[in-house]
Amino acid sequence: MGSINSPTKLRFLALLALLALKKQSRLLSLPVIVSGQSLTLEWLNSFKFFNCNFSKVFEMEIWTLLHLFVLLLLVSSTPSTSNQEGDALYALRRAVNDPNNVLQSWDPTLVDPCTWFHVTCDSDNRVTRLDLGNAKLSGNLVPELGKLERLHYLELYMNKLVGPIPEELGGLKSLVSLDLYHNNLTGPIPPSLSKLSNLRFLDASNNDLCGTIPTSGSFSKFTEASFINNPRLEGPELMGFVRYDVGGCN
């Protein structure tokens, strides 16, 4: 994301190229090669820059233009939240096999992941829901998912996901519902998940999780149904969990 060929940076480069030719008006009709593209003044005028076209921008004093350039370059170099969340989602796409091309629209060249299928965002363009249940995905969950701080619903049930639940999912501080049932996930349940104060619904049943079920925080209200058919899980009888004595995660 944010390559040198992005429209904003391309305009910056083109503007500088034209500034270099400002006092040589006889050359302005010639094309300028920027990032492998042939640019002309007529072509540049088709773009808007601060709500005016390049013919108006070109009439500004050079110091004004340079100040604008520095300001916008600083803004463009700061990664947006949409970019960060898009990177996190794309990390998941790279980590899984997707035989049905469910994630085909997850294009890393698109700055806004809110345009991707199976992704829901709020009015601030922050990702709030990920619907990938029964998508026939296989592979591992990725720690980058923990960066989706406004995610409310993470639906990954009935896939073929393997490996551990990343500890970093404890960063999903807005998470309300986590559905991981009917996968092949292994390893312990990360204690960090019990710190998710907004978590109301959890279904991690029908996996191969192991170790002791957390009982603090949000996990204090979950029943055995949330963890059933994980033969290597164990939990305290006082919570109503069936205790499995198979050596934990060993």
From TrEMBL:
Pfam families given in the database record: LRR_8, LRRNT_2
UniProt entry keywords in alphabetical sequence: Leucine-rich repeat, Repeat, Signal
Signal peptide extent: 1-27
Domain of life, source organism: Eukaryota
Residue span(s) of domain Leucine-rich repeat-containing N-terminal plant-type: 82-122
InterPro entries: Leu-rich_rpt, LRR_dom_sf, LRR_N_plant-typ
Coiled-coil regions listed: none
SUPFAM superfamilies: L domain-like (SSF52058)
Protein name per the record: Leucine-rich repeat-containing N-terminal plant-type domain-containing protein
